[in-house]
Amino acid sequence: MLLRLGHSLGALGQAVAAREYFRELVGSARHALRPGHPTILRARACHAHWQGEAGDPRAAATASEELLQDTTRKFGRNHRFTLTIRRSHARWLSDAGYPNRAVKLMGELIPVFTRVFGPEHKETLYARNILVRCLTDAGRPDRAAELMGELVRDFGRVLGPRDPDTLSARNNLGVSLGKAGDPVAAVVMFRRLLSDLVEIFGPANPKTLRTRNNLARCRIEAGDPLDDRCGEVDV
Known about the structure:
mainly alpha, globular
């Protein structure tokens, strides 16, 4: 319950408030519980996450690395919880400016996630999504777009076409296509996604607005916003 409350702040767009909530929760838990208690470790993981989401990926990477040492010592390197911390550490490393190192870490992690969780488990799909992000940050957009296309299909098959994670993956694919030098394909992706988001969430939802902005940017990059393939979506 306490962890959900903090995450609900972040879900409302209050990343700084969520970060401070978990910072205080970690302090309180350390006073009340023995060192290494699972509640403390989970609260630290949440704090690191919202440090990154609040705009400080370096702090998030450092906090994740410190937490990783403790979870590895307590649970083992390939315990499920430890694996999620290893994945988060790679994500924040990439965001902090070390994408090549993050790509290497994720390349090592994906087979482990596949073995421990299974190839179609959500945690494995999330790990593959982090790898795509890291590849994009590392200047390898072609490979990122290729893997993201595969991931979108798997998200849709496993979670359903309207699951929030599937919709997010479709947005990421559009971004990858644009960065890979194919803005027209990105426009097609964003147009279809925008239509679905308007129907599911409404025109004023932040997800809808983000996709509308991505569509507008890619239309400009495509060079001919009035081209048949780049026409507006009726919403």
